[in-house]
Amino acid sequence: MADPTEQDPTGVSWVDGGLVAPGEAALRADDHAIVVGDGVFETTKVVDGVPFALSRHLRRLSRSARGLGLDEPSEGRIRSAIDDVLAADPAAGLLRITWSSGAGPLGSGRGGGPGTLVVSTSAGNVWPDAERVLLVPWMRNEHGALTGLKTTSYAENVLALSTARQAGCSEALFRNTAGMLCEGTGTNVFLVVGGRLVTPPLSSGCLAGITRKLVLELAGRESSESTPGGVEVRDIDPEELVTAEEAFLTSATRGVSAISGVSGEVETSFDPAPGPVTTRMSAAFDELEAGTPDP
User: What residue ranges define each of the domains in the chain, with the CATH number in brackets?
Assistant: First the structure.
């Protein structure tokens, strides 16, 4: 199948103070983001020249940095860099912010110097109307040191996504060590069970996705996940994928994306895909994205 996430390689990058020409070397070979994946990042969609939900992404970037034991990056510096790259790339579809611990030894110990800030743009992704996903055999550790942090240590995701694509799927889903449904490589997952939205809790080990949270709010949830509302946040047995009426993924680059079927450790299909609940949530999210740049 064609790779639905393939991006145009062109774009603009800003590295530690200035714009970098395409193809120009910019990072030190001993930067710890390269050596051991010691960094955090955020990616968001650019809508009409404006990064969507940027304030939420910057808050999560700071939370991830604190959780990884990094100094928090300067929000003013990040916003200035964003202005520079978007001025240089007015057609940008995606924006990525990466913050690493900076130069360090060729091992796990940090160097103690200043961090490295990179802000880059690329073309947007084009996704199918509905996606088939692969439930992979590997598990997220909901008790791990990096749980809930959006770090650059993504090799586990790369392997899972590569395996999914070899199986003709566009995303991989993980269970956690308790055997419950957790998340995708870059997505959160929602099911429709008995006409009601259901999604795994943060305690499952899934990332607190920005789009996930916005969908919860659109569905009528209160800020506390323990408060009754329009969607149920609870542990989900993967076998519920078989009995669910619909399922969809959420992410900053996808918005709300219908799941057409599941392969791997669970086999099922959804027809129609998108179904009525997914269609309604997708329309509500698209309206929010178009009308409220920084919700």
Answer: 13-122 (3.30.470.10), 130-291 (3.20.10.10)
